Amino acid sequence: MGSSLSDSTNREDLHSAIAAFDTKPGSPGKKSDGREKIRLFLMRINWLAFVIPLLSITAGLAAWQFLTESQTQFILDFSNIPTPVNVFHSFRDAVVTTVFWRDIYWSMYRILVAFAFGSVLGVTAGVAMGYSNILKLVIAPYIEILRPIPAIAWVPMAILIWPTTEESIIFITFLGAVFPIVLNTWDGVRRVPNELVKAARSLGANRVNVLFHVVIPYAVPNITVGMALGMGSAWFALLAGEMISGRFGIGYFTWEAYQLIQYGNIIVGMLCIGVLSSISTGSIYYLKNKLVPWAE
């Protein structure tokens, strides 16, 4: 009896030792666990999210290369359009100059200043319109009259009412940003369920508390969507201002390239505009996901 008990104990100790050996760093068991984790990680990656856009861009570049090299003239004239290789060479030559980065800096500076003012005023006006019928009657007529006016139509007036060209460009960019923010904020505030407001009032909250603790948090998803749309509109307005009355900026860079018949730099400017706009808009959506993750 004692001998069998001792044998059983020895076998258990042996199994424990083997298990401990297998889990030591660098042991085959540890390596197997690492390979399993890598395999599971690779399985979780959505390869289609990378492969399909990559194939789409490759196909677009191939079509661009074919149409420009063959100088196709069917509906559209591609005989004067530079090839992707020529555009790459133009980009390579531009990025080593201080003029290019100076233009990037001025465009980003104007966007940030105009968008900051547009966000503050747009959110304030949108909340006021959605939360007060009287303020809506006061503000809404201005929004509906001024909103359809394109940014380029504001250029002569902006030059007249602002003392410097720089301020007029920022003003035009501000107009491009503010209206989408106002409208989406207004819509977000109007969508707040009355049940939430009544529940807060029944718990003793006054109108100010309801505004900051119920209405605005509920409207944040709409506000961020409006800010993203406003950012895109701000870039459109900025380029109109820079092309007509600017001396610096990526819009001026693009327009100057056209005047100097530097067709490669025209496309470089256009692509820079697209990339910068996408990055700035994506940053807003990233902040939205951090602020209101439940909205996804």
- The secondary-structure class comes to mainly alpha
Question: Which architecture of the largest domain does the CATH hierarchy give at level 2?
Answer: Orthogonal Bundle
Net shape:
globular
Share of helical residues: over 70%
GO biological process, one term: alkanesulfonate transmembrane transport
Subcellular location: Cell membrane
Main location: membrane
Membrane topology: Multi-pass membrane protein
Description:
The chain has 296 residues and is mainly alpha-helical. It has helices at residues 2-22, 28-44, 48-69, 84-94, 98-131, 133-146, 155-161, 165-190, 194-202, 207-245, 250-259, 263-291; strands at 73-74, 76-77. A two-stranded antiparallel ribbon has the order 1-2. Strand 1 (73-74) and strand 2 (76-77) form a beta hairpin. It starts with a helix and ends in a 5-residue tail after the last helix.
Please tag this protein with its features.
296 residues, mainly alpha, MetI-like fold, 2 domains, two-stranded antiparallel ribbon, 12 helices, disordered N terminus, cell membrane
Describe how the helices and strands are arranged.
Elements: H1 2-22, H2 28-44, H3 48-69, E1 73-74, E2 76-77, H4 84-94, H5 98-131, H6 133-146, H7 155-161, H8 165-190, H9 194-202, H10 207-245, H11 250-259, H12 263-291
Antiparallel strand pairs: 1-2
Write a concise synopsis of the structure shown.
The protein has 296 residues and is mostly helical. 81% of the residues lie in helices and 1% in strands.
